[in-house]
């Protein structure tokens, strides 16, 4: 682990300054320009769900958003169906401090993402969200190919009416969640992750995503709805909001320690993380009090990039947990090779061990295995005193669940 504060320039996977390759020419002063390629990665999915006409109309409307952004920022934009190239002139505004260029680049990346994907595309009764990915591109004196520079990842649909019906239902869920975000009706409930030593110490509080009813003000946990956003490629936007919200809460409460869930789809260093990585690098006190829990309700798309993600966040001072060990798409390889420092055992193992001594033994074996690769092992779903005794007997270092909140110890 590092003992010095990481610099943003260390994280070249996110952004970098282009080399100056020409004194003049059609691209201008390349050394003072920032080039960003944005890609609508769900174009094939939209085409499969709603047809070529609507997909093309969505592209046209996203292009209009791109042109409006370029006018607002005095940038240049070129479009080619699902890809857009932005050229931002940075001359005279790079700043003198180390990392100034990269920080401005992070803001521009975030601006491109949010401007192009912040609202759905609507045509009659048909609604869809464009899923945008963006990255810094390099221009030199060679011919530029926007296809090669853009994202190579594309999200595809499936044939048949069943997939289409699920896609439409998932889009309706996304509309509800993002509208609730816009209305200020997305918040958090909290569960304390308690030290198993019996000292009633809290390692951190896990923030659990909730939707607030506009009629009754009741909090309803919406973790299950996140699966809909994962299926249609929109979970990155939600995860960005969640992490930024938790970071803001940590700034406001210097003694607090908080954790939050992110999808396995978000465990990759890219444009969606640019601003957050910069903030955590600048604020090590905040980073040291943040725990990111990677949920595995969808598979890791790229294991090596996920491992780099974990390494970078831990270098910044954050803790990283692997959530729901033994459930969903989790695998022992993720535990043994990602380099997380917290493993969380899903509630189903406690429920099974409560009724069967063989399952209780399996729980102890799983905890013992997890402790060989992560110094902290949390048992989730502790609801009764019997659960608490079972979890303690398994050898877990921390316990979490309704039992402690109900008994006033959290």
From TrEMBL:
Residues 170-410 form the EAL domain. GO terms for molecular function: cyclic-guanylate-specific phosphodiesterase activity. InterPro entries: Cyclic-di-GMP_PDE-like (IPR050706), EAL_dom (IPR001633), EAL_sf (IPR035919). PROSITE patterns: EAL (PS50883). It holds the Pfam family EAL. This is EAL domain-containing protein. It comes from Trinickia violacea.
